[in-house]
TrEMBL record:
This protein's UniProt keywords: Repeat, Signal
Keyword Repeat belongs to the record: yes
Protein name: Thrombospondin-like N-terminal domain-containing protein
Gene3D superfamilies: 2.60.120.200
Domain Thrombospondin-like N-terminal: 2-179
The organism of origin for this protein: Cirrhinus mrigala (Mrigala)
Extent of the signal sequence: none
């Protein structure tokens, strides 16, 4: 009930226009190369409501991903759009700055928390775990703790599913689409 496969609840499969099945790190799990971001489907509405309810009830979340990012690229791993199309929340891997950015909006103000020296965009498979609980955020790459930060406030309390959409690998601007 509290574990969500974002590919599954977004109906991303080998038949999805914009996602190409790719040889992954783990033979048991699908991997995709995203090439047409305008065709990436959003997380289903009932699943989005359930995800945000669980995040708020559990006072946080654990985001786990295995990725292989092109050198020097920048991309959104997951993003939550408001009905207006603006982002409420996103996780961005920025290879140019060598950071993983947690971006969220609270009361109309955008906040960015950057985990530095993450070394994700080296064209090698990496496992990442972002653990957010209360006002604390911890980033692990593999089994190594990269950094822990204290957030200004628990932003997830302000996330609203009504009319919103959640996407995997789709940025707010073209340069932030994950490659």
């Amino acid at each position: 009930e509290s574990i969500f496969d974002l590919f599954k609840i977004s109906s991303i499969s080998r038949k999805t226009i914009g996602a190409k099945l790719f040889k992954g790190h783990d033979w048991d799990s699908p991997a995709y190369r995203f090439i047409r971001f305008d065709h990436i489907p959003s997380v289903s509405t009932p699943a989005l409501h359930q995800i945000l309810k669980q995040v708020q009830n559990n006072e946080g979340f654990v985001f786990v991903a295995t990725l292989r990012q092109d050198k020097g690229s920048k991309g959104t791993l997951i993003g939550l759009e408001a009905p207006s199309g603006s982002r409420q929340f996103e996780i961005v891997s920025n290879g140019r700055a060598n950071t993983l950015d947690l971006v969220y909006v609270v009361e109309g103000s955008q906040n960015v928390v950057s985990f530095e020296d993450v070394d994700l965009s080296d064209s090698q498979w990496k496992n990442i775990t972002l653990y957010v609980h209360g006002e604390n955020a911890h980033l692990y790459v593999g089994c190594s703790l990269i950094d822990s930060v204290i957030l200004d406030e628990p932003f997830y309390e302000h996330l609203r599913p009504e009319g919103g959409q959640m996407f995997v690998a789709k940025g707010t601007i073209r340069e932030n689409h994950f490659r």
